[in-house]
Write the C-alpha cells for this entry.
Amino acid sequence: MRVGVDIDGVLADSISLWVHEMNRFFNKNKRIEDVHLFDIIQTFGITVDDLKKFIEQRGRFLMSAPCPVRGAAYYLSRIKEHHDIFIITARKETYKQETQDWLQRHNIPYDRLLLLGTYAKKEACLENGLSVMVEDTLEVARELSAAGIPVILMDAPYNRGNLPELICRKHSWFEIYQTLVEEPLQATVSCFSGNSGFGKTVIESL
C-alpha cells in the first residue's frame, strides 16, 4: 500500500515554532489555538507583504529547526516495513535541501519526497496512487476525501470539528501505526465506519 505523509504538523512540530517565531517577529502574543493556517494573515493582523518579508528572513530556519512529532520516526519506520511512504508537502522546492537534511537528521524513512509548493495535494495523491494520506490541515483533508482518498487526520487545536466520511482523526503516531499495520482490518473498519472501500483497499494491499 502507498501511504502519503505530510511534514509540517504531522512529522515535524512546525506550527508551534511558526507561532513562536511570528509572535517575536510581529510583536504579537498568539497561541497555537488562535491560529488557522488558511487565515494566518488575519490571525496576526498583518499584510501579505509582511508575511513575505517574514518568510524571506526566517523561512530556511523554519524548515530546518522544528522538532519531530513524538513517535514519528519510530512508528513511520515500522509502517515502512509494510507499506511504501510518499512524503507529500506544501513546502516549495526552494527548501528541498533543508527538508532532505531535516528528514535525514531525524531518521525519517521514505520512498519518495514531493514538494508541491501548494496545499492542493489531490492531483499528486491521485497520480501516485496513494491508498491513504496522513494530514493535519482540515481543508486539505476535505479536498482529498471528496476525491475518494481516505485521510488520517493528525489531531491539532487548529483542525477540530466534525469530519466528513473518509476522514479519521488520530491523536498520535502510535494510533496511526495501529490503523495502518497492527490491526488493519479491525482498525480501518472502526476508523472509517460506513465506508467499506478503504477497508477493502487496505486488505488487498497487505
In short: The chain is about 45% helix and 15% strand. The first helix runs from residue 14 to 26. The chain has two domains: 2-13+68-205, 14-64.
